[in-house]
Amino acid sequence: MTTYKEIRGSQIEVVATDPSNPVEGQVWYNTTSNVLKGQAATAAGAWSSANSLNTARHYIAGAGIKTAALAFGGLIAPGATTAVTESWGGSSWTEVNDLNTAREAAVGIGTYTAALCVGGPSAVNELWNGTNWTEVNDLSRPASQKYAAGAGISTAGLFFGGYSPTTALCETWNGTNWTEVNDLNQLRYGLGGAGTNTAALAFAGNNLGPLFAQTESWNGTNWTELNDLNTARDFIGSNGTQTSALAYGGREPSVSGKTESWDGSSWTETTDLATARSGLAGAGADNISALAFGGTAPPATTATESWTGAGAGLTRTFTDS
After folding, report:
1. SS3 of 193, please?
2. What is the pLDDT of residue 6?
3. What's the pLDDT tens digit per position in 235-258?
4. Beta strands across the sheet bearing 304-308
5. I want to staple 50 with a disulfide (CB 3.0 to 4.6 A). Which of 20, 178, 257, 306 is the partner?
């Protein structure tokens, strides 16, 4: 019989606490919990329920990653916008200082300690420093500030698309001012965005009727059309980079839980959200790790779901059954 040492080149570790960064195939015995554990990779992505937002809302904005996110603004009831901001530390939401301007359908850019809340439906732009929101220079466009999408960080952002009327406008933020740059190829609102201000993706959306599956890539100068989503929809949640992104929820036109993963060249449909909804927000660095929150099913929801994508590391406990 082949032993573990012959396969891996080392004996099974005996430790009091689990390794902080285990690699796939690593096995150890935890003397504190008295169990044998090993590191595997998930075969398929999955959403799991997480602690809910404190305030139910849709057309909400978000920023950050799966373990450190920010949720702000939104629509809590017809005609009733909110300025409420909540911070996610990896396990629960905590209400923090409000936006200066209550709004719906704004765009969130950045991290949970350094974020922008842009548009929705005014041109107002606010900067979050981890404690407070401060109004900074507005968008340069006179209209079309809501139902847009964004990418980047608080000092180097990108804002594109939008409604009132439908637009393909694109603006870039240098930390002080917004400057109009080359437009999207497709007029659209209710779209998703991912990436940076020099390497971004725009996908899905609507133009007063038809739903879009189109994906466009931004190289810092121009937009180029790439492979479409599998399902056309609008008002989706999104996160990630130009080469590793996630699109989830939305309307097709009924509310959807569909989730698609982008690998840099094509979209693959994967596991659905547990709660189908539109007008939600997302946070996440890539297509492996994400957080989806808010939206409407209807009605407006506090639902929060955590995504672990295919190939992500997973610690498993061995049993004798």
Report:
1. strand
2. 55
3. 999 999 999 999 999 999 999 999
4. 46-50, 304-308, 289-293, 281-283
5. 306
Helix (H) or strand (E) holding 6: helix 4-8
Give the Cα separation of 98 and 85 in Å (integer).
5
User: Is the Cβ–Cβ distance between 178 and 139 less than 8 Å?
Assistant: yes
Token code pair at residue 45: 């992505």
The predicted-structure confidence for 169-196, as pLDDT tens digits, reads as follows 999 999 999 999 999 999 999 999 999 9
Distance CA 208, CA 211 (A): 9
Question: Would you place residue 10 in the very low, low, confident or very high pLDDT band (cuts 50, 70, 90)?
Answer: low
- What is the C-alpha separation between 95 and 57, in angstroms, rounded? 14
| Nearest Cα residue to 113 out of 88, 146, 90, 78 | 88
Residue 260 tokens, joined:
């698609």
Contact in structure between 24 and 292 (CB atoms under 8 Å): no
Pairing of strands 289-293, 281-283: antiparallel
- Contacts for 56 with CB less than 8 Å, ≥ 6 apart: 76, 294, 299, 300, 301, 302
Cross-strand bridge partners of residue 313:
41
Q: Distance (Å, rounded) from C-alpha 232 to C-alpha 211?
A: 5
Which among 303, 247, 280 has a CA at the least distance from the CA of 61?
280
| 8 Å CB contact between 65 and 108 | no
The fold adopted by the segment(s) 47-308 is: Neuraminidase (2.120.10)
Query: Domain residue spans in the chain?
Result: 4-41, 47-308
**Strand pairing partners for 13?**
28
Helical (H) or strand (E) element with 5 = helix 4-8
